[in-house]
Amino acid sequence: MKPLILYTNPNSRGRIVRWMLEELGVPYDVQVMEYGSSIKSPDYLQINPMGKVPAIKHGEMVVTECAAICAYLADQFSDKGLAPAPGGAARGAYYRWLFFAAGPLEMAMSAKSCGWRIDDDNVQSIGCGYLDDVLNTLEQAIQQSPYLCGEQFTAADLYVGSHLGWGMMFKSIEERPVFKDYVQRLYSREAAIRANQLDDELQKQQAMA
Predict the structure, then answer these.
(1) Is the full-model pTM beyond 0.70?
(2) Residues 97, 71 share a domain
């Protein structure tokens, strides 16, 4: 099996990839990158020239960006069932919501958090459109079935659920009942609990250092 390394920091989106890896149940090593020091080191910039986390190295393959990492891992370990089989309708929904979260949802959340102006004068040129349209669209999708691809939990749920959980925590997303129920269902998974425990312990170690 090719070695798998997660480059992360517990105060980052690396938590999403940690959860993904715990869902897969495959062995991996963790390289903790510190803000202001090792994350901008020449060695790490060879991994991710952006100097950001998370990133993974799987053998000689380097992948950055959370959605891309989740999609890559789901395909590399397809026997774990975290992506629908290629060719079916569920595969289309999987791609749709995985990248909906990476695009419109994250952009709309950032706009809300940073107080960026989105109004009738500029909305046509803003990729995410209005935040309410983004949230209404996602709410409709979540209401239809237990998971975004029907009865199957996938990496799309993991990724979307992470964004919704953070967004509600930091008040960039309103706490709609549908969102709360969905996130609670996802966060109660054994792999999610285990991943949070591992990153919470890393946070404690950093605070004591």
Answers:
(1) yes
(2) no
